[in-house]
Amino acid sequence: MEKIKAVQIVKPGELKIVEMDMPHIDETNNVLVKIKASGLCGSDAGIYHGTNAAATYPRVIGHEIVGEVVETGPSAKKVKVGDRVIIDQVTACGHCYACRHGRPNVCQHLQVRGVHIDGGYREYMAVPDKDCYLLPDNLRYVDAVLIEPTTIACQACSRAQIAEDDEVLINGQGALGTRMLSIVKLYHPKKIIVSDIFDEKLEYALQNGADVAINPKKENFFEKIKDVTTDGYGPTVSIDCACTKDSLGTLIQASGNAGRVITMGFTTTPTEVTNFGITAKELDIRGSRLQNRKFQQVIDLINEGKVDLDHKISHVCDFREAQSGFDFNDTHDPSIRKIVFTMEGEPYKVRKDQ
Ligand code: MN
Ligand code: ZN
After folding, report:
1. How far is the CA of 102 from the centre of ligand 2 (A)?
2. Quick count: other Cβ atoms within 10 Å of Cβ 204?
3. Can you spell out the DSSP letters for 157-169?
4. CA dist., res. 66 & res. 69, Å (int)
5. Which of 28, 185, 310, 319 has the maximal Cβ count within 10 Å?
6. DSSP state of 152
7. SS3 for 289?
């Protein structure tokens, strides 16, 4: 039987390049995709380190998956051989309460590619045609990977119900925070505030639509929040793209009355919040998980010129050298905006994207 290579997290802390059977199309998984690139996301690093509460092992990780359609079954209508596609990572039961209420991203029996079932750090995948979305024509595969984190940003913004009189705080300006900024600004809120502990990232955010930047390592976060929001009200929408143990408490404390606080983290480390902190301001604390059919929306935004994903990634790495990619990611070097694994050509370790 023909074999393909894959990156498998055998157990927390142990990454292996393994061989697995070549996938074949069938009635359900009626499209064979030759994977071209797959992004390294914070949640992939969490699965590698054993801090992602949702993951099961051993697992072929990777949920930011783009490639070329190389074979289709008779029931596949949405795509054809030669199409460049991104694959939706969410698979749902279609019957539970969440699914019945149009929220398959939190299906009771949710199976996320690269988390609960095998994902995209491999050479081929067989998937249903309904989970494939056509890439914009001139977008490189390595850049198209960023469509996925952009869908995550769209989901958080829809959960936050951003309006034009909102003052929005985006906590964290890593890969997710950057994508969040690109979507938040399309809502034209009154003000966009970003916070991060790296000045380089804040500088980049200011050049890309943020109005105010806060570095909590260098200035008093709560004082600055008061200073920069109208009448010291505090942000009316706070989105946590840093997802550290304490960021939820911080955002609750910073938030203005009647505000929304959006959580996106996967840590299970307890943190202290108080009833009064939420009740007194009548805050909405809302989780935002994955994305609910947002791929086409993001692709449309790119095709309309409202979202630009060209050359936003920082590093590329052959997937067979994934260990070096994960090790480099662990250095938290401020030059890292996004590391993307590629599946073509000679193996090479992590290097700057040109
Ligand atoms: Mn991701
Ligand atoms: Zn369901």
Report:
1. 9
2. 18
3. HHHHT--TT-EEE
4. 10
5. 319
6. H
7. coil
- Ligand nearest the Cα of residue 86 is 1
Q: How far apart are CA 192 and CA 208, in angstroms?
A: 11
Cα 223 to averaged position of ligand 1 atoms, centre (Å): 33
Q: Which of the ligands is closest to the CA of residue 145? A: 1
Q: How far is the CA of 97 from the centre of ligand 1 (A)?
A: 25
Please write the tens of the pLDDT for every residue from 287-314. 999 999 999 999 999 999 999 999 999 9
Cα of 275 from ligand 1 centre, angstroms: 32
Q: 208 C-alpha to center of ligand 2: Å? A: 38
Name 176's Cβ contacts closer than 8 Å, sequence gap at least 6: 42, 149, 152, 153, 241, 264
Q: From ligand 2's centre to the CA of 100, what distance in Å?
A: 7
- Phi and psi torsions of 335, nearest 5°: -75, -15
- Of the listed ligands, the closest to the CA of 98 is 2
**How far is the centre of ligand 1, averaged over its atoms, from the C-alpha of 316 (Å)?**
16
Predicted confidence (pLDDT) per residue in 7-45, tens digit: 999 999 999 999 999 999 999 999 999 999 999 999 999
Distance CA 197, CA 195 (A): 7
The mean pLDDT value for 230-236 works out to 98
Cβ neighbours for 243, distance < 8 A, ≥ 6 positions apart: 42, 172, 263, 264, 265, 266, 267
